[in-house]
Each structure stands twice: as C-alpha cells, then as structure tokens.
C-alpha cells in the first residue's frame, strides 16, 4: 500500500521529519504515537500530499508520489479525517457526504444519495440526515466526517488525532466507528494520543520523537516491553508503564 523511504520535511532550517522509512501494507491498521511536536501529523499530511516532502520518496500502490502526480487521483484513493471535522457548514449532513462523490467522481445524484444514506446509517447518523453541522455534537460531526471520507470509497483512511477535539464522553462513539472499520478490513494509519485505543486497534504501533521513528512493533511489545529508553520514558510519563523488563 504505502512504502516510505527516507522521508524528510523541513521548514527553512527547522527539520520536522528526519529520514522516515515505513511500510503500511494492505489491510493493516498502524497507529502513530509520540509527544506533541514529534512530527506525527506532518508525516500523515505528507502521505496525502497535503505537505510537500523536502526529501525522500513515497510510493502508494507502487506509484511514486511526486510533484508530477495529479493529487486528485491520490485523494480518491486515500481519505483523510482531521481533528476539526472540516464539514461544510452550509450543507446538511447528507449533502456533506454526497458532495465529493458527485463533484469529484461524477457519481449520479441518486447513487450518491443512496451511498451517503448507507454510510450515515453505518456511523449511527441515519436520524440526522437533514441536520446541519452546527446542530450536531462534536462526536456526531466527527462521525459524519468519517462517513464523508468513506463516500469516496478509498483504499485507505488517514486519521489525524480524530478524537483530540472532542469532549471525553464523546470519544468512545468515534472510536467505535473506527473499530468497526477495522473489523471490515479498512487499511488505516492513525495519529492518536489515546493509548488504550492504539493498543486495541493496531496491527503495529509506531513511536515517533523529534522527527524520527524511535521504535515500532506489535502493540503488546510496544506497550509492555518497549526496547528503547525514549519509548519507555514516554509511556511512563502517561502512567502506562512501570519498570520495563
């Protein structure tokens, strides 16, 4: 699916990503954890060409993602869910989900509406089709945003801290939708601060710090037997680890 080779990203003289290499295979759920400012979100945005890398190479399905690539093609293959929902405030929930299939993929209106209704039912919003974003809770808005990303029928979804803008009691409803997507086999890369969620949803966990991948492995290994001192210290700071063996 994705093959990232020595990815670099700098803003002027400030290096954000330093020689990141990572594979994400079809059907995998990979979570990316680490302290604020470690480059996690920038990495995710580079995967979707929302940020232009400074160096290195990114391949998606063996296609090199470079300046000559039509980014519209990539955005049909890879959907992204942001922290802030980014729903169109002037559209109802149903029209928000219908918009991209109709205007980007040129799906007929009737077919786009059927797809949108089905997706909104899957995320538990069939009763809010005619509501506007301002009339929804944060959790409902994020579930609508996930349905909107799914409406393009992507091969993969990227989630950039999808629960960080939510009140604590609303986090669970978004996580449930994501867990359901995982059970359906959706390939996902997820930047998150929710460690228990990362443990439960992941095939692999990647720990980043200061623009580097410090450590990666299966959830049990990362959370119970991390090999790197920096990973151990990070997890201890979250009260998730004691004296690691």
From TrEMBL:
Gene3D superfamilies: P-loop containing nucleotide triphosphate hydrolases. GO terms for cellular component: plasma membrane. Residues 2-235 form the ABC transporter domain. GO terms for molecular function: ABC-type amino acid transporter activity; ATP binding; ATP hydrolysis activity. It is a peripheral membrane protein. Keywords: Amino-acid transport, ATP-binding, Cell membrane, Membrane, Nucleotide-binding, Transport. It is found in: Cell membrane. SMART domains: AAA. Belongs to the ABC transporter superfamily. This is Amino acid ABC transporter ATP-binding protein, PAAT family.
């Amino acid at each position: 699916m994705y093959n990232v080779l020595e990815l670099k990203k700098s803003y002027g003289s400030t290096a954000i990503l330093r020689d990141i290499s990572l594979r994400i295979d079809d059907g995998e759920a990979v979570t990316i954890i680490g302290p604020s400012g470690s480059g996690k979100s920038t990495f995710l945005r580079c995967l979707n060409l929302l940020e232009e890398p400074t160096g290195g190479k990114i391949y998606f399905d063996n296609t090199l993602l470079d300046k000559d690539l039509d980014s519209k093609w990539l955005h049909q293959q890879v959907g992204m869910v942001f922290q802030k929902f980014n729903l169109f405030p002037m559209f109802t929930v149903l029209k928000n989900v219908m918009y991209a299939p109709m205007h980007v993929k040129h799906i007929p209106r009737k077919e786009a509406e059927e797809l949108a209704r089905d997706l909104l039912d899957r995320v538990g919003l069939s009763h809010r089709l005619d509501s506007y974003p301002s009339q929804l809770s944060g959790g409902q808005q994020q579930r609508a945003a996930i349905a909107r990303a799914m409406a393009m029928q992507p091969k993969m979804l990227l989630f950039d801290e999808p629960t960080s803008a939510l009140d604590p009691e609303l986090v669970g409803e978004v996580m449930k939708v994501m867990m359901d997507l995982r059970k359906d086999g959706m390939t996902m890369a997820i930047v998150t601060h929710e460690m228990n969620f990362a443990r439960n949803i992941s095939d692999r966990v990647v720990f980043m710090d200061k623009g580097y991948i410090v450590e990666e492995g299966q959830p049990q290994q990362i959370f119970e037997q991390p090999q790197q001192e920096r990973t151990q210290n990070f997890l201890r700071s979250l009260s998730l680890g004691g004296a690691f063996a």
